[in-house]
Design goal:
Elements (H helix, E strand, L loop, with lengths): L29 E4 L4 H10 L6 E5 L2 H6 L1 H8 L4 E5 H8 L4 H9 L5 E5 L5 E5 L2 E5 L13 H16 L4 H18 L13 H15 L7
């Protein structure tokens, strides 16, 4: 379940969606732009009275195919882009994810997250790279929504710390991966809707244990 085949995309009510930003959201510090039309995403940005402290954007290959120019405009406005490895290669026309990251960040974002499904996620920030593993799971029940859950975990952690440093983003990637690992365990939101703080912290510790080790150098 690490790849998908898109047979058809039906936008339905989202095709003509015109977002209206409530007054209470006008002074938001953090903005997560969900995977909608790039023009809709830029409309949201332009509707805010002042620029948020951090803007994170999600997109997919469909928009690269049908709305490339609009996508380039929105990319130039945001701080972080979150996409998967297939999308990164399509957008950059580079197979190497390191080369792809350099090209994509030259389009505007200061940081890039490349999700690799069961193989973890990469965070590129300036000339630094961080890798977060995926938690080995015996069974993946339903991967639908894992990317959205990842994005929510990422921006949610950063907002909770009110810090946008590279170190905070690294921790946010771990929390995002932990949240996504819960999502795939059941159908839809069944697993995440009643999650407790204790469960999340225990899962994050599992991620830490995956990569924590001592080594003696000769």
């Amino acid at each position: 379940m690490n790849t998908r085949d898109t047979l058809v995309t039906e936008l339905n009510v989202l095709a003509d969606f015109d977002p209206i930003i409530p007054e209470a959201y006008q002074d938001c510090k953090y903005l997560m732009l969900g995977n909608l039309a790039p023009k809709t995403q830029s409309t949201v940005i332009n509707s805010l009275r002042k620029r948020p402290k951090l803007m994170v954007m999600d997109t997919m290959n469909f928009w690269m195919d049908v709305a490339y120019d609009d996508l380039m405009v929105t990319l130039s406005m945001v701080d972080v882009l979150s996409i998967n490895d297939e999308e990164a290669r399509q957008l950059s026309k580079e197979h190497s994810l390191v080369k792809a990251a350099k090209k994509i960040m030259a389009m505007g974002p200061k940081a890039l997250i490349i999700k690799k499904g069961e193989h973890g996620a990469l965070l590129f920030y300036e000339n630094r790279v961080f890798f977060a593993p995926a938690l080995p799971l015996e069974e993946v029940f339903d991967p639908t929504g894992a990317g959205d859950t990842f994005a929510g975990g990422f921006i949610g952690y950063i907002a909770s710390k009110d810090d946008i440093s590279f170190d905070t983003m690294k921790s946010a990637i771990i929390y995002a991966s932990a949240m996504a690992s819960f999502c795939v365990e059941k159908f839809g939101t069944e697993r995440t809707i009643n999650l407790t703080h204790e469960e999340i912290e225990e899962r994050v510790q599992e991620f830490v244990d995956l990569v924590q080790f001592d080594i003696k150098l000769n």
